[in-house]
Write a structure and sequence with these properties.
272 residues, alpha+beta, seven-stranded mixed barrel, two-stranded antiparallel ribbon, 5 helices, 28% strand
Length: 272
């Protein structure tokens, strides 16, 4: 089934306008959703309650407010809130180009695919080819759903991808995170590099991995529906002792990885 666009947009590149379509780059992988039930087994629903009186409040009676001091709020009407929203122009306005490898991954939020819109094929391909040739990506402003977003447009193969970025004030400074103060020995580093190279792959293949927990939950639910079998937690493994000798642990890891790699090679050779 062909993907369906979730929105339309126009990339503004100098005096060039490129009609585009936005597509979701992923789908929610959460296959299992649990509902809250009452002791009698029927669904329950959430209810808004006045924090002072405890009286229920209907959703249609709710008013939005901003807390500017302790227990002090300024309220806004729907019309006022609408006036505060960014005008949804659906324009992706490119403001500058930056080296694609200079954008820290911490800034990247949601990712969307950009498809060429009607009449925009050549301009779409030209922008992508130019960015691939220069190694740069486009920083742009994008107004949609009442908000203004900072986005990065970059090429992926023959396509363009739009990545929603966090603003600078939203990203925490990593310098405050402990990084350790231990000194590294050359022999330790060499063993660590050897271990990495043994289990490294030349390319990323996400198809090799599955949501094992999600699959196990689905199987348990199906069994419980079929025969009402009670779900039991697996026996907990005994905690392993803390590793003190880093070199010994690295050597053992390298040897185990090498043995596993040799065994895998033998199996491929014999076709087993």
């Amino acid at each position: 089934m062909s993907p369906r666009p979730i929105a339309t947009a126009t990339i503004s590149f100098g005096l060039v306008s490129i009609p585009c379509q936005l597509f979701s780059s992923a789908e929610n992988s959460q296959k299992v959703r649990f509902n809250f039930l009452s002791p009698s087994g029927t669904r329950v629903k959430q209810q808004y309650v006045d924090a002072q009186t405890g009286d229920p409040v209907e959703r249609r009676e709710l008013v939005k407010g901003y807390q500017f001091a302790r227990d002090k709020y300024v309220t806004f009407t729907p019309e006022e809130l609408k006036a505060l929203e960014a005008r949804a122009t659906q324009a992706i306005e490119i403001v500058e180009f930056v080296p694609v490898d200079q954008v820290e991954r911490a800034y990247i939020g949601k990712t969307y695919y950009l498809g060429a819109g009607k009449g925009g094929d050549k301009a779409y391909r030209l922008l992508g080819a130019a960015m691939k040739k220069t190694g740069w990506a486009a920083l742009a402003k994008y107004a949609a759903r009442g908000k203004q977003y900072l986005v990065l447009v970059r090429p992926v193969g023959d396509h363009l991808v739009l990545e929603q970025l966090h603003y600078a004030h939203e990203v925490r400074d990593i310098t405050g995170v402990p990084a350790g103060e231990a000194e590294l020995q050359d022999a330790e580093l060499q063993l660590a590099v050897q271990l990495i190279e043994q289990i490294a792959s030349d390319e990323f293949d996400p198809g090799k991995y599955e949501d094992e927990v999600g699959q196990r939950v689905l199987e348990a639910i199906e069994k419980k529906v079929a025969d009402g079998a009670e779900i039991e937690a697996p026996a907990e493994e005994e905690p392993t002792a803390q590793v003190i000798d880093l070199m010994a642990a690295l050597r053992a890891s390298v040897e185990r990885s090498g043995s596993a790699e040799e065994k895998s090679g033998e199996q491929r050779a014999t076709g087993s």
